[in-house]
Structures are given as C-alpha cells and as structure tokens.
Design brief:
This protein has about 110 residues and is of the alpha+beta class. The protein has two helices and eight strands. The strands form two sheets. A five-stranded mixed beta sheet has the order 2-8-7-4-5, with no helix packed on it. A three-stranded antiparallel beta sheet has the order 1-3-6. A hairpin with a 2-residue loop joins strand 4 and strand 5. The longest helix has 16 residues. The protein is globular.
Length: about 110
C-alpha cells in the first residue's frame, strides 16, 4: 500500500482501532477522531467521536456545544462547530455507570 509504506497508513489504523473498539468491545470508551490534524484552516469544523456510551457531550473552549447519542455505528458527528483563531481545546465527555469518560485534544485555527 502506497500510504502505509510511507508511514501515513498508521493514522488510519489508529482511528480504525478506536472505531472497531467502540463497536466490538463492551468496555465504555470515547475517542475524538481526527485529533492528529491539529492545524485547522476553517472556522467551522465537524467533530467526529467514536463512542459506545449512551450520550456524548462536546465542549469547545469550556463552552458546551452539544449532546448527542451515537448512531448505530457508534459515531457522533457534531457539525459546524465554531473554532476561534489560535488555540482551541476540544473535549468530549460521557458518563458511564461507574465513571466519567473524557477525551481531549487541541486544535489550532490558523
């Protein structure tokens, strides 16, 4: 594979791992897809989350941007999420019966 031979396939394998984990592993989990794409050029972005919990909360720069139940493929897609110029803290949360799950990443709007 062209991309895998150049190390680019690793990104897709990592995301695929979390997608399959959300679908096949009963252990509650949450993961922000596309997290490695740190530098952003559009002020409105889609935030994709893989999760097997009942409801996911998206927080951007300490402001709650929405709640969503994962679809049948265990994916939440928050559309047109606004970013501010510079550093943006992206966080997703979910409550499991035993603990709160949190995943975070930083995206920078150029």
């Amino acid at each position: 594979d062209y991309y895998a031979s150049r190390g680019l396939g690793d990104v897709y394998k990592r995301q695929a791992y979390y997608f399959y984990r959300a679908n096949w592993n009963p252990e509650p989990m949450i993961y922000i897809a596309g997290r490695r794409n740190v530098n952003r050029v559009k002020p409105l972005v889609d935030v994709q989350v893989f999760s097997n919990v009942e409801e996911v909360i998206l927080i951007v720069n300490d402001c709650q941007c929405g709640k969503m139940k994962p679809d049948s493929l265990k994916v939440c897609l928050f559309k047109d999420v606004p970013l501010r110029k510079g550093r943006n803290e992206i966080e997703v949360r979910a409550n499991d019966s035993k603990k709160q799950l949190i995943d975070r990443c930083t995206w920078i709007l150029q």
